[in-house]
Write a structure and sequence with these properties.
With 344 residues, the protein is α/β, with parallel strands linked by helices. Helices cover 38% and strands 16% of the residues. The chain has a single domain, classed as Rossmann fold (3-Layer(aba) Sandwich). The structure holds NADP nicotinamide-adenine-dinucleotide phosphate.
């Protein structure tokens, strides 16, 4: 099939990762069905409409996770679906009592829509918050973090709060739900499912005029913002879950998504991160390379952990990361400066 005849759906289209993914998909010649929560929000719609080739090959659809069936229209006619929309704040007034219920119901509805519509592959933006190497009995970490690890939801990690725990639950239960619909071509049921367990994403996406939440986590040492979902505490929570923090550049994430699309056959769970670093190592890098930002001493002191990054599945398939730790961290500073989040 010619690429422009191949239709690809991307949910949550105006987000940090999704907008860059759509830019790349249009650039490669695909026709894209993007969903947004609110087609009346010009600040988000205009980001996508301004992309090269959007006039001829981008169709926008309105779909809210709190109304799962709304995604069906966008999925119709597509061969591949990337599910990136994810609720961070609970919306009252719907049938769901929290973000987890809404996210899992949407994951299930989207997977069923994919089966019904003859979609070839569903690719989900999962998270490393679902792949903690913490042992179920709370006695420390396994030796390595890889695709066999599932976060024990009954354990409460240090630095957690209701918001972070809700995100962990929503991503973990949604990923399990989506994986249950996958079958390899050999198994013959039709829908292949890939869950890409993405590390903390950094790097600049110049389509956006604000600093994305995950970029704000990277530079939380520099703005000394301790609390809140984009603060140092959230970064430390990721470190508590993982032992260290898996990180990856937004360009590599989007390339990994497209790599999964381009495989003749692929199914299952893959973690996606190019480096595995501690919060102290991030702070030390900024202290050495961006001395204009004084780093508090407490950010330079931390626990040394032996847990290793053990995930190789994506690279065994042939995927290559192009961005190293330096590029990720420097591009976070560049993004924050460009958008005014950092003043110096
Ligand atoms: N960034 C990371 O470090 C990271 C790491 C691992 C996994 N991920 C996953 O990757 C995906 C994209 O993340 P991101 O960093 O690009 O986040 P983002 O910029 O906040 O994008 C999230 C998207 O979800 C949409 N959304 C939120 N609530 C919704 C609702 N009720 N109905 C429909 N759409 C809704 C948002 O739409 P609006 O624009 O309308 O708000 C937004 O487009 C998410 O699934 C996230 O969990 C991200």
């Amino acid at each position: 099939m010619e690429k422009n005849e191949c239709r690809v759906c991307v949910t949550g289209g105006a987000g940090y990762i999704a907008s860059e993914l759509i830019r790349k998909l249009l650039d490669e010649g695909y026709t894209v069905h993007a969903t947004l929560r609110n087609l009346g929000d010009a600040s988000k719609v205009d980001i996508l409409k301004s992309l090269p080739n959007a006039n001829s090959r981008l169709l926008l659809f309105q779909a809210n996770i709190y109304n799962p069936t709304e995604f069906q229209h966008a999925i119709n006619g597509c061969q591949y679906v990337f599910h990136l929309a994810s609720p961070l704040q609970h919306t009252e007034g719907y049938q769901f009592k929290n973000t987890t219920e809404a996210a899992v119901a949407t994951a299930k509805t989207i997977a069923m829509s994919c089966v019904r519509s003859g979609v070839r592959r569903l690719i989900y933006a999962a998270s490393i918050v679902s792949a903690s190497p913490l042992k179920d009995d709370g006695s420390g970490y396994k030796d390595s973090m890889d695709e066999t690890c599932w976060t024990p939801l009954s354990l409460s990690a240090n630095f957690s709060d209701d918001h972070l725990a809700a995100y962990r639950d929503s991503k973990t239960l949604s990923e399990k739900e989506i994986l249950s619909y996958g079958s390899s071509i050999e198994e013959g049921r039709g829908l292949e499912v890939v869950t890409l367990g993405i590390g903390l994403v950094g790097g600049d996406n110049t389509l956006l005029s604000y600093t994305p939440g995950s970029v704000a986590l990277f530079i939380s040492h520099l703005v000394d913002k301790v609390y809140g979902p984009h603060g140092y505490k959230a970064l430390k929570y990721l470190e508590e879950l993982g032992g260290k923090i898996p990180i990856v550049h937004v360009n590599d994430v989007c390339d990994a998504f497209i790599f999964c699309l381009n495989q003749a056959s692929i199914n299952g769970r893959f973690l996606c991160a190019s480096s595995f670093v501690s919060s102290v190592e991030i702070a030390e890098y900024y202290q050495e390379n961006h001395p204009e930002f004084p780093i508090k001493q407490e950010y330079l002191e931390g626990t040394k952990r032996e847990v290793q990054w053990g995930s190789t599945r994506l690279m065994e398939k042939g995927f290559e990361y192009r961005c190293d730790t330096k590029m990720i961290l420097d591009d976070c500073v560049r993004c924050a400066r460009r958008t005014g989040y950092l003043q110096k």
